[in-house]
Amino acid sequence: MSGFDRRLTRRRVLETAAALAGTAGLSVFAISCGGDEDSRAGAESPTAGADSPTATTAGAENTIVPTVADGGSRRGGVLRVALTGDPPNLDIHQTTDSIVVLVCSHMYETLFTWDAEYRPVPLLAASHEVLDDGLRHRVVLQENVEFHNGEILSAADVIASVERWSTISGLGEGLMEAVESIEQVDELTIDFHMLERYGSFRTALSRQLQGCSIYPASVLANSSRTELAEYVGTGPYRFVEWLPDRHVQMERFANYRPTESDADGYAGAKAAYFDSIEFVPVRSEASRIAGMQANDFHFVETISSDQAPVLQDASGVAVDILPADAWVNIVLNLRSPLFADLNIRRAIQIALDHEQIMLAAVGEDYYELTPELVPGAPAWYSEAGIEYFNQNDPEEAKRLLEEAGYDGTPVRMMVTQEVQQEYNATLTMKQQLEDVGFVVDLQVYDGATLSDRRDDEAVWETYTASASFRPDPVMRNLSSSATGWWENDEKDKLFTELQTEADHDLRFEVWEQIQFMFYEDVPRLKIGNIRRVLARASALQNIGPTSMQPEFSNAWLEE
Amino acid sequence: MIPFIIRRLILIVPVMLIVGTITFLLLHVTPGDPAAVMLGPDATPAQVEQLRDDLGLDEPLLVQYPRWISNVVKFDLGRSIFLDRPVINAILERALPTLQLSLYALIIAIGLGVPAGVLAVLKRDTLLDRMLLILALSGTAIADFFLGMLLILLFAVVLQWFPSGGYVAFSADPVEHFRAMFLPSLALGISIAGLPARLIRTSMLDVIQEDYVKVAVSRGLSPWVVTTRHVLRNALIPAITVFGYTLGDLLGGAVVVETVFSLPGMGQLVVNSIARRDFPVIQGVVMVIAVAYLLANLLVDILYVAADPRVRVDRVSR
After folding, report:
1. Are A527 and A332 in contact (CB under 8 A)?
2. Across chain A, what does the average pLDDT equal?
3. Which residues of A touch B272 (CB under 8 A)?
4. Given phi > 0 = left and psi -120 to 50 = alpha, else beta, which region is A97?
């Protein structure tokens, strides 16, 4: 935050001094208490429906409209974005941390990305053909796409990037298991020769967490699996500097050539209105809120729902309550001796009152109780397994526990307080489980310890997480190698079909079967969908879609 | 004096060895894995294992520890797992904001505390004396983060006189530098100002009983001259020791204040490094802070001797 704009002037002092006495006390109270019932009631109630494509802007005059706009008057300025912390690195190949996608998607691009309907469409690719009965995917690149270091994008860069990515990312590894060889046909054409059909080819190579961003082969030649030698991409902004704990700074890439198509979701033209973008890590939520109120930031990465009323009343700030696109996810350890018994898992599933848990987690207005596992992607909405969802039948749970011969072995529930909604949900769940006869051992850790312990199958029964948005269910990691270890041959077979099949209708049928198995087999518990809250300066316009992290490539600041 | 200083400097070596060993062992028995943090929430156990291998984190402690110690002896604190740079560079980049914060906070603390202590003595046993005592205790008792948030709310949100956080280098823009540093320095300064205030008051009340003060008064010197030249000057001697120990309060407070104000200092560095289990950085910062502590204590002892010739070096060093 090197550039705070406001200068101290005598006029400002006189203007604000009069307002001080009356407002300071109230403001202190408001920020300390996180808002009260009156201010919450004053907020515009968000509309329900997971398939609503636009965000609700509560208490503000702006609505996000995902369309590109032009006009020289929008050009210029510095966008300041408050992040919840530093990115662990600036290499999308490396991490599933969403903050890296938020920052780096302005610098790097992928072969494909998502349109407004969350369909995978070409970005760096000019075309994609499926040949030889699905056993060859031909990708032709756009011409004269320039990297930030002046090199021109070629097939060699794509092959080098895909090869590195596939040794790091689970998704890349999965793709390469189906690839026999990658052939550079000419300077701009690549053929992927497949061992088997791979219908989700575009999905695998689209923008996502730990996605396959395309770096120059020359940079990768000097990079390792764990470190990039330089931060060079083809995006509309190029890297300037990263001072950890201070900022990541990037500036408009003058030679960026936007495609001629209109902006469409994350695809199409990118206007790059801002001269530069500054991402500032602000770990304390209270400081992020205060920074937003003080107009030091234009965008705050995320805020908890109970802070929304505080910001709704702030001048120059808009609060966007997004359509539901994530869910509270209780991961069960199927390798735990206790949870090897399906009846025990079913007893937990039946015992829970999802409404109470979601109320505790995020509060009224910020959740939905629907069973689909890919909320935010209407094309994949399914109610398969709804009969198992939110049963809230404690008596039946008690009966199942008795039938299973539950002997009081403690259920070790791990959670971190660093994500308040997960912690609140777990506390309520603990109470509900104890009410039906479970003995619960609640274990609260910091995030790093929880990440470590969840990989050890011997030390836990459940941990609480948030399942983030996925535009395609094949991206939801339900494999037997994911923590929780859901080993089920039938499910694995269906998942392979989901990967290989290209026809959406057929894939949807397969997905419905998997979703039903999810509820029948109880490897995890979906509690409820979360409506996330974003805060931005009222002047910040046209952010575009946010489910795969917001991108500011077509946003601008109103005068 | 010189042999005393040399002896103290030599003693730093075993102290640092103990500090380094304890820190290393504590960190490595604490659960938490930088590889898991780096890979993010959706990584599989196999991916985490692979990255641990790539980063050399799965080597036995008996291999890691001697290598680390031998590097430290060569002033090589290793390379940060997350920050893509040597630990010593990461520390040096952040040392300046913390030193500036501490210096400005100390100036504010002395600027508020010493006059308050003197005033309390001059007006002792009056309502003003009691009010000052209450203020001093309140400043010490109030949590740094809470005071910081109150200051942000008043001066950044309501009045908009100062930014809510961030750092501007002095060399880049001196005016903006002081604007950015004012609120964090004030928050930290107020929280430690109570100590000099109470200390000066107590110390001056002791000195005021001395014969030479009575002589000064009987000579007809003005109360101002007696207070500043004879009482305050002598009352400051014991205060020097205590000011040295406020270094701990300053660094402890800086951790919190830097987080609230998003200052990229040593406090932020250590907090963030603990959260992401960046072992080399945590070890490096602890070593640097320990050395700073030892040197500050040595400096205080030297100043104490210099300020009061009655104190002999052998008494200090005992």
Report:
1. no
2. 86
3. 85-86, 244-245, 283
4. beta
Those residues whose C-beta lies under 8 Å from the C-beta of residue B129, and which sit 6 or more positions away, are B120, B123
Place of tokens 């000099």: B196
Nearest by Cα to A49 from A529, A423, A537, A559: A529
Q: Could you tell me how many CB contacts below 8 A there are between chain A and chain B?
A: 197
Q: Closest Cα of chain A to B94: distance in Å?
A: 9
Q: What is the ipTM of this complex?
A: 0.79
Asked if A458 is an interface residue toward chain B (Cβ–Cβ < 8 A), one would say no
Task: Read off the pLDDT of residues A116-143 as tens digits, 9 standing for 90 and up.
Answer: 989 999 999 999 999 999 999 999 999 9
The rounded distance, in Å, linking the Cα atoms of A447 and B14 is 35
Cα–Cα distance measured from residue A51 to residue A61, given in angstroms and rounded to the nearest whole number: 23
Q: A481 vs B161: CB contact, 8 Å cut-off?
A: no
How many residues are recorded in chain A?
A: 559
Are A88 and B276 in contact (CB < 8 Å)? yes
As a whole number, mean pLDDT of residues A171-182 equals 92
Which of A1, A32, A465 comes nearest B163 by C-beta?
Answer: A1
Give the helix, strand, coil percentages of chain A, each rounded to 5: 35, 20, 45
Rounding to the nearest 10 degrees, give the CA dihedral for residues A213, A215, A217, A218: -160
Q: Do A244 and B276 touch (CB under 8 A)?
A: no
Please state, in angstroms and rounded to a whole number, the distance separating the CA atoms of residues A372 and A384: 8
A397 touching B (Cβ < 8 Å)? no
Query: Would the pLDDT of A11 be above 50?
Result: no
Q: Do B158 and A225 touch (CB under 8 A)?
A: no
Q: For a pLDDT cut of 70, what percent of chain B falls above it?
A: 96
Instruction: Output the six-digit token pair for A410.
Output: 């403690």
What are the start-end ranges of the H helices in A261-333? Answer: 285-293, 308-312
For residue B124, the model assigns a pLDDT of 82
A448 contacts B160? CB cut-off 8 A: no
| C-alpha–C-alpha distance, residues A103 and A552, integer Å | 10
Give the whole-angstrom CA distance, residue A27 versus residue A357.
Answer: 30
Residue numbers in B near A98 (CB within 8 A): 40
What is the tens place of the pLDDT at every residue in B53-112? 877 787 888 888 888 888 888 888 888 888 878 999 999 988 899 999 999 998 998 899
CB within 8 Å: A451 and B268: no
Cα angle at A86 between A81 and A91, to 5 degrees? 100
Condensed to tens digits (0 to 9), the pLDDT of residues A454-466 reads 989 999 999 999 9
**Does B82 contact A445 at a Cβ distance shorter than 8 Å?**
no
Q: Is A506 on the interface with B (CB under 8 A)?
A: no
Nearest-angstrom CA–CA distance, A515 and A473: 10
Global pTM? 0.82
CB-closest option in A19, A210, A483 to B158: A19
